[in-house]
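quick one
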Amino acid sequence: MKIKSVNLETVCGITSKMPENDKLEVAFAGRSNVGKSTLINGLMNRKSLARTSSQPGKTQTVNFYNINDLLYFVDLPGYGYAKVSQQTVEKWGKMINRYLDGSKVLRLIFLLVDIRHKPNQNDLQMYEWCTHYGFNPIIIATKADKIKRSQKAKQIKQIKETLQVVEGTPVIPYSSMTKEGREEIWEYIDMVYEG
Ligand code: GTP
Ligand code: MG
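structure w/ magnesium ion:
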């Protein structure tokens, strides 16, 4: 898709009502600092529309980006950042569940995990929430530039095995530095609105 317009249209905090959008949504979930906002910028060819940070916990809201007036990218709050209080963790979980449960136009979830690490309990939880609400998330293994090419297959295998993904689930290595994986991710997004 050629990006003509992108616009951060709605930002939802813990008490906000989620929008009832009339265009389809593609959501990005994953641990804090995994690279969700960076990926969204990369897909939109914007350097910094989605706020990114080397400090985990940057995105604490559900952010809806209107893409070409055709669909929404939904940047979900990152989970599993150790330094926030348990109360905050619960709030995030609630917000994510409220969104997954409530959206009538969500069609695709990308679950991001860091290619260097074995998915943890939070990632498993997120994967389970997705399947609970009837989604089979596509996995994006971020920061692919940070490992040696020779390690990639092993890391991807570990991610698949740890998350116990549904058979046939794609795991796409992505790097914001080299843009490896960008085209493949767009192919899945294109399928959403092309129907
Ligand atoms: P929260 O908003 O806290 O949930 O984090 P996030 O998942 O949105 O992470 P964000 O996009 O803010 O990225 C976190 C850090 O990782 C930033 O310093 C990014 O520059 C860096 N980063 C993200 N993707 C990549 C990548 O593919 N390669 C490398 N080398 N760094 C990356
Ligand atoms: Mg973010």
